[in-house]
Amino acid sequence: MVAVLAILAAIAIPSFTSINANAAQSAAKNTIAQIAKECAVKEANLEEDPEFNVPQLNSYTVTPADGSCAGTANWITATRNVGSNADMPERIRYNVVNGDKDCTAGNNLEWCTNTTW
Q1: Residue in 110, 96, 16 with CA at minimum distance from that of residue 63
Q2: How is the chain split into domains, by residue range?
Q3: CB-side exposure of 84: number of CA atoms within 13 Å?
C-alpha cells in the first residue's frame, strides 16, 4: 500500500510543478499582451506620455518599472524572477509599436517556439 502511494506521489508531484510553471508563464504572457493593448488604446487616443499600472506577478517582474508605455525601445518585458522555475521562459516581451512578440526560453524550449509565443 505504501509503495503504491509512493509511486502515485512520484508521478503527481512533477506534474503539479509543471502545471504551476505553465500557469505562471501563461499569466505573464497574457499580462504583457493586455498591457500592450492598453498602451495602444491610450496612444490611439493621443494621450501624452501614456503609462500603465505595473502589475505584480509571482514569478516575473514587469518592466519598465515606471509604467511607461514607451518601454525600453517600445518593449514591455516580463523577466523571470531569481528562484522561479528554470523551465519557464527567461524573458517574455511585447513591442507596443509593431506588435512583435519574443521569448527567451528557459530549460523547457517548448514554451518559446522559434523564440515567439
Answers
A1: 96
A2: 2-111
A3: 23
Q: How far apart are CA 35 and CA 82, in angstroms?
A: 23
Kindly give the residue spans of alpha helices, DSSP state H, lying in 45-117.
none
What does the alpha-carbon distance between residue 66 and residue 29 come to, in Å, rounded to a whole number?
Answer: 19
Rg of the chain over CA atoms, in angstroms?
Answer: 17
Neighbours of 109 (CB within 10 A): 11
Q: Say what the pTM is.
A: 0.79
Cα separation, 26 vs 29, whole angstroms: 5
Which position has the grid cell 522559434? 114
Q: Tell which phi-psi region holds residue 54, choosing left (phi > 0), alpha (psi between -120 and 50) or beta.
A: beta
Residues 69-103: tens digit of each pLDDT = 987 788 999 999 999 999 899 999 999 888 889 99
Contacts of 25 (CB under 8 A, 6+ apart): 59, 88, 89, 92, 111
